[in-house]
Amino acid sequence: MTEATGVAHLPDAGEDAPFVEFDREEWSRLAASTPLPLTEADIDNLRGLGDPIDLHEVDTSYRPLSRLLTLYVEASQQLRTATSTFLGEWTHATPFVIGVAGSVAVGKSTASRLLREMLRRWPQTPRVELVTTDGFLYPNAELERRGLMERKGFPESYDRRALLRFLEHVKAGAPEVSAPVYSHLTYDIVPDRRITVRNPDVLIVEGLNVLAPARITAAGEASLAVSDFFDFSIYIDAEVADIRRWYVERFLDLRSTAFADPRSYFHRYASLTDDEARTRALEIWSSINEPNLVENVAPTRGRATLVLTKDAEHRLSRVRLRRI
User: In sequence order, what are the residues at sequence separation of 6 or more whose Cβ sits closer than 8 angstroms to the Cβ of residue 225?
Assistant: First the structure.
């Protein structure tokens, strides 16, 4: 790991390295014959606050990725058929699960929404669902009881058992599996509200810590990890200094959008001046988000199937794909 203003980069990909690397141009050429199913209007609806992604960037970054993912889904389906034949028994289809990890403000939510819409337009994967791990955060009352409100987003702030049960049921092929709903407006779990996943072709699971390794139990044994249920995983990467700047810019923009709503947990920040908002955003970043990134999120980068790295302008700069 480098100093806090940088990130721990993976080693250069040589013949013996676990990753093969592509620059922006090489990556974009991989899907030259693949149609782009989205329009500029689609991008406007899917773009997250502070993420300046446009149709050209989607064409360059996500069109090749959507094609690669469909190839993985097809190969997974063929492997399941071959296994059923070998066992002499029918096995029902289970969703292909994709994990998307990365820092706060790096753009993983936008990436997940884009992939959901692009994969839905491939004939092999018409049913694609997206679940964020925010829904598996403990409610604020429980976080307060445990003294974790200032560590929201850290691994210990999630109901890991509930998340693992959810994924176990999904991978078991259950016809319906439900998950809690989180409100970014109230900054809390919404009581008595659930999102239902109905045996999709593909399930995208997006969250800060989805690539964290398994915990060691009191008996010294490794428990299940969330990533054990993934068929493919993506880590969205950028320099820490750039992510910090994106976070502060987004915080300033939120004053006139989400924070302006009187129901917002952060409504008290809506009236801050630019200087006051910038100072408060940096305080939150340096006390919560950056420590979580450096200690918990960035170290999981090497566990991803694919690492998508952005430059200072939120544009794809390189891609590293794990060799099979």
Answer: 212, 213, 214, 215
Dist. CA 170–CA 177, nearest whole Å: 7
Report yes or no: 177 and 104 within 8 Å, Cβ to Cβ: no
Note whether 98 and 116 are within 8 A (CB): no
* Angle, vertex CA 73, rays to CA 71 and CA 74, nearest 5: 65
Residue 98 carries which side chain, given as an amino acid letter?
Answer: I
* CATH class label, 19-322: alpha beta
Q: Find out whether 159 and 138 touch, Cβ atoms under 8 Å.
A: yes
Sign of CA dihedral 195, 243, 312, 305: negative
- State the Cα–Cα distance between residues 306 and 321, nearest whole angstrom: 4
What is the C-alpha to C-alpha distance for residues 136 and 123, in angstroms, rounded to an integer? 31
Using one digit for the tens of pLDDT, what is the confidence trace for 261-283? 999 999 999 999 999 999 999 99
Per-residue pLDDT of 15-31, as tens digits, reads: 447 899 999 999 999 98
Strands 188-197, 177-183: pairing kind: antiparallel
What predicted TM-score, i.e. pTM, was given to this entire model?
0.90
